[in-house]
Specification:
By secondary structure, the chain is α/β, with parallel strands linked by helices. The chain has helices at residues 16-30, 53-57, 66-75, 92-100, 102-107, 126-139, 161-181, 186-205, 211-222, and strands spanning 2-7, 34-39, 78-84, 114-121, 143-151. The protein binds flavin mononucleotide.
C-alpha cells in the first residue's frame, strides 16, 4: 500500500504543518504502508494557463513537475494534502497544484482512492481549509477519510499537543484501514454523484474539442 503526502508550506517539513504531518505519517507507517512525501517548495508547479490542452490530450503542456506529481497521484492508494492556512484557504503553492489538476477533475481520475487532509493555522478557521481540501479530493473522485487541523502555540507546538498527535496518528492508521476495507463514505456519495453527472455532462458537451476526456469517460462507462 502506498500513501503519497503532498505538503505545500514554503517551510517544507520543517514548519508547523510538517510537524503535524509527521505524526500522521507515523500512524501510516505503523500500519505497514509505504510513504512518500512531496514538498511543493522543492518542486516547480506553475499556475494553470487555461490552454485546455490537458482536456484534449490528457497531458499538460507546461514544462515543470506537474506531470510527475500527477503520475504519482495516479499510482498511489491514498494521498495526504497538507497546507498551512493562508488567508482562510490553502497556500498559493497548493492552489497552483489544485488548478493544474483540472484535467484529473474532469475525469474524476482518482476514483477509488482515499484522501486525508492536514492543516495548521496561526489562530483558527482550520475547518474551513480542511473542508475545502476535502471537497477538492471529492472532485477528483476520491473518498475523504477526514482531516486534522490546529492553531499553533509557537514554533512547531500546538495546544493540547498530546491529544492532537494521538488523533493525527489514529487518522494515519485510519486511511490505511479504509483502503484495506474499501470503506464507503455514504455522506460524500451525493456530492460525488452530482459531480459525476456534471463532469460527464460537461465532457459530453465538449466532446468535439476534448477527445482525451471523451474517450476517458467512454472507457469509464464501459467498465
Ligand atoms: C501569508 C500567510 C498567511 C496566513 N494567513 C493566516 C490566516 O488567514 N489565518 C491564520 O490563522 N493563520 C494564518 N497564517 C499563519 C499560518 O497559517 C501558520 O503560521 C501555519 O502554522 C504555518 O505553517 P507552516 O509552518 O507549515 O508554514 C498565515 C501565514 C502566512 C505566512
Amino acid at each position: 500500500m502506498k500513501i503519497l503526502a503532498i505538503i505545500a508550506s514554503p517551510r517544507g517539513m520543517k514548519g508547523n504543518t510538517g510537524r503535524l504531518l509527521d505524526e500522521v505519517l507515523a500512524g501510516v507507517k505503523s500500519s505497514g504502508a509505504e510513504t512518500e512525501v512531496l514538498s511543493l517548495k522543492d518542486l516547480d508547479v506553475k499556475p494553470c494557463v487555461a490552454c485546455d490542452i490537458c482536456h484534449k490530450t490528457g497531458v499538460c503542456n507546461i514544462d515543470d513537475d506537474y506531470e510527475t506529481i500527477k503520475t504519482k497521484l495516479l499510482a498511489c492508494d491514498g494521498f495526504i494534502l497538507a497546507s498551512p492556512n493562508y488567508i482562510f484557504s490553502v497556500s498559493a503553492q497548493m492552489k497552483a497544484l489544485f488548478d493544474r489538476c483540472n484535467g484529473l477533475i474532469h475525469c474524476m481520475a482518482l476514483e477509488g482512492k482515499y484522501a486525508l487532509m492536514v492543516e495548521t493555522s496561526g489562530g483558527g478557521e482550520d475547518d474551513e481549509v480542511l473542508t475545502y481540501m476535502s471537497r477538492f479530493s471529492n472532485t477528483l473522485g476520491a473518498n475523504s477519510v477526514g482531516g486534522i487541523g490546529s492553531a499553533i502555540t509557537g514554533v512547531r507546538t500546538f495546544p493540547d499537543e498530546n491529544n492532537l498527535f494521538v488523533k493525527a496518528r489514529t487518522l494515519g492508521q485510519e486511511i490505511c484501514q479504509s483502503i484495506t476495507d474499501k470503506r464507503a463514505y455514504p455522506e460524500q456519495e451525493m456530492f460525488r454523484k452530482g459531480f459525476t453527472l456534471r463532469m460527464s455532462g460537461l465532457v459530453e458537451y465538449m466532446k468535439e474539442y476534448w477527445p482525451f476526456e471523451r474517450e476517458y469517460w467512454e472507457k469509464k462507462r464501459a467498465r
